[in-house]
Amino acid sequence: MHPNALLDACSELVKRTLTFEHPADAVVSRFFRENRGLGQRERAALAETAYTVLRKKLLFESLARSGSGPRERRLAILGYHGPRDFLKAALNDQELAWLAQCDAVKPEELMESHRHNMPAWLVEPLKAQLGDGFWPLAQSMEEGAPLDLRVNALKDKRADVQKELLKAGIRSVPTPFSPWGLRVEGKPALTRYDVFMRGAIEVQDEGSQLLALLLDAKRGEMVVDFCAGAGGKTLALGASMRSTGRLYAFDVSGHRLEALKPRLARSGLSNVHPAAIAHERDERVKRLSGKIDRVLVDAPCSGLGTLRRNPDLKWRQSEEAIAELTVKQTSILDSAARLVKSGGRLVYATCSILPEENEAIAEAFSAAHPDFVPVDAAELLEQLKVAASASLCSGGETGGRYLRMWPHLHQTDGFFAAVWVRK
Predict the structure, then answer these.
(1) C or N: which end of the chain has fewer Cβ atoms within 10 Å?
(2) Largest distance between two CA atoms of the chain
(3) Of 194, 191, 199, 100, nearest to 147 (Cα)?
(4) Which of 12, 4, 54, 3 lies closest to 35, judged by CA?
(5) φ, ψ (nearest 5 deg) of residue 76
C-alpha cells in the first residue's frame, strides 16, 4: 500500500474510533471487514495507530493544535505505528517540520495530564489507592498487553504445549502465577494451528485464570459461573472439575453465550450447561437456591483493568456510569449468594481497578450477610501452591483478604476478587 493511502486509512479509522459510539475493537473489526484487501502488516499498523491515539489522546490533542490539516490526520501522524521513513514519505514539508517539533518535546516538559492521559475523575481514586505507584500504573496502561494462553488441563500438559508451539515458531514462557498459563511472544494468528483447533489452548489473561483457580471447583460438584459471558472462566472451571459434576454458565446475554458454543465444542467438556437468564432473580436461579457448592460472580464492571487492551474505556466510561454499575453489582452478588449451600464458596470478581466496584462492594456484602464468612485470598492461593501469592493480595486487617492484580506489578489486566464461605 502506498504511504499516502495508508495514512489516509489510518486517519479515517482514528476519526471513527474517536466518536466513541461503539467499542474501539468493534470499530476496527468493522473497518477491516469493509476493507478486505488490507494485508496483515497494514492491519497491524492501522489498529495500533488507532489504539496509540486512544492511549495518548490528551497529549496528542495538545500537540495537534500547532499543526494544520484535518484533526484526525494530525492525530494519526502522531500515533502512527510503523516504520518512520514510511510515514514521512506521506507528509508534506509543513507536516514534516511540525512532526520534528513534536518529537523534540521532552517528557519532563509535559503537563501532568499529558503524561498520564487519563480523565481527571479516574486519576484521583487511583492516586489515593496507589500513591507513588500511580505513575508506573499510568505508564503501563499506555503499553499493549501481552498475549496469555490457558492450557486445557483436561487435554494437555503445559510443557508439552509449550514445545508444540515452539515447533510452530511461537515462543512462550510459563506464566509466573497461574499453573495453566503460557505468555506468548508477539501476536501470532493462533486459530490456524492444530493446538488451537483441537482445544488444547484458549486465549485468557493470567489474572482471569487465577479467578477460576480461586473458586477451586472440584470433581463432581455443582458449580455456577453466574455472569459467564463468552465463557473463558467457565472453560477453566470445567477443566478443573475434570468434566464431571454440573457446571451452569448463566448470562443475561444469549448473544454472549452463543460465542461460548464453538469454544465449548473444542474444549472436550461435557459438564457445562449454558443458560440465558432474564435477570439475576430468574426462575432458573430460584430453583437452584441453596444447592450449589461454588459460585463465581465475575460481575459486569467498568472494565478499567483492561485499559491496555481497551484504551477507549477511559473515555467512554464516566462517574455516573460507575455509580449505576455499583448498584447492579450489589444486586447481582446478593442474588448469586442465594445459590450457595451451607459450607459452599462464593467468589466476587471484577476486571476493574476502582475501589467502589471492588472493596466497597465486598465490604458492604460482608456487613449485610453475616452468614457469609470472608476467606483470606492469599491463604487460599498459598494452599493452591501459587507462587508469591502474598504479592497478589491486599486489604483486610491481615493484608491478604482480597486478590488484587495490577498491570504494572503483575503484567496482567487489573483484577479484583473476594471470597466467602457460607456458614
Answers:
(1) C
(2) 73
(3) 191
(4) 12
(5) -65, -35
d(CA 368, CA 272): 32
CA–centroid distance for 51 within its chain:
15
Which of 10, 227, 301, 351 is catalytic? The answer is 351
Question: Measured at the alpha carbon of residue 147, what is the angle toward residues 142 and 150, in degrees to the nearest 5?
Answer: 140
**pTM higher than the cut 0.90:** yes
Q: What count of other Cβ atoms lies within 10 Å of the Cβ of residue 33?
A: 8
Neighbour-count burial for 121-144, b at 16+ CB within 10 Å, e otherwise: ebeeebbebbeeebeebbebbbee
Could you tell me if 232 and 305 are in contact, meaning their C-beta atoms sit under 8 angstroms apart?
no
Active site annotation includes 393 = no
How far is residue 148's CA from residue 324's CA, in Å, rounded to a whole number? 31
Q: Are 295 and 346 in contact (CB under 8 A)?
A: yes
pLDDT string in tens for the chain (423-residue length): 899 999 999 999 999 999 999 999 999 999 999 999 999 999 999 999 999 999 999 999 999 999 999 999 999 999 999 999 999 999 999 999 999 999 999 999 999 999 999 999 999 999 999 999 999 999 999 999 999 999 999 999 999 999 999 999 999 999 999 999 999 999 999 999 999 999 999 999 999 999 999 999 999 999 999 999 999 999 999 999 999 999 999 999 999 999 999 999 999 999 999 999 999 889 989 999 999 999 999 999 999 999 999 999 999 999 999 999 999 999 999 999 999 999 999 999 999 999 999 999 999 999 999 999 999 999 999 999 999 888 999 865 546 899 999 999 999 999 999 999 999
Strand partners, 147: 184
Count the Cβ atoms, other than its own, within 10 Å of residue 36: 6
CA 194 distance to own-chain centroid:
26
- Whose grid coordinates read 448463566? 250
User: How far is it, in rounded angstroms, from Cα 27 to Cα 34?
Assistant: 11
- Nearest-CA neighbor of 199 among 153, 150, 268? 268
User: To which H or E segment does residue 407 belong?
Assistant: helix 407-410
DSSP bridge pairs for 398: none
CA atoms within 13 A on the CB side of 219: 2
pLDDT digits (tens, 9 = 90+) for 265-278: 999 999 999 999 99
